[in-house]
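Entry 14. Structure prediction run on the chain below.
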Amino acid sequence: MDNSKRAVVVTGFGPFGEHTVNASWVAVQELKKLGLGTDVDLHVHEVPVEYQQVQSLVPSLWKQYHPLLVVHVGVSGMATTVTLEKCGRNHGYKGLDNSSFCPDSQCCVVGGPDCINSIIDMESVCKRVNASGLGVAVSVSRDAGRYLCDFTYYTSLYLSHGRSAFIHVPPLGKPYSKEDLGRALQAVIQEMLELMDQAEGKIHCQQHFH
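Output returned:
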């Protein structure tokens, strides 16, 4: 592995319910073709729509790649824009997954905080991408839906102390093509990395004065 490169992990979900082809995984595969520039090592993973799989897979991604950022992508049948989720929530998981399971506790981490925010300023990412003339609308949400998307996001936020992001995409063709969604993911994640670099820069500047 090239250590001068920064690792970024992006996940999409496998099929579930009426989503026999999951737009999130299709979009992530399109992103993989485009890449995130020469200084980023991009790793993509498909996540099964199962709570227990998420609980073992998400920590293993952090361990394996020590990524700067993990971005989870999911599909939402209600979304008409590419939607940036600000936070993950711990409680209220009653929906059964692909193996007809849901956690007894109905929460992600017993005793964890109710809600964890991403360290990334999603409003800022949203404004910048919308101003860039990408041709794909981006919006921000505070509710990732209390299913596998939200569950995965919270789990990742909890493990990474907020260094995770979640992006909801609409189903394919409603209205965007897989190429559109791939370009949108690329633009959004590049903005996220840019903001993280700026924040990092500020921290270094402050350290020099102490």
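The chain has one domain: 6-208.
Filed with the rest of this week's runs.
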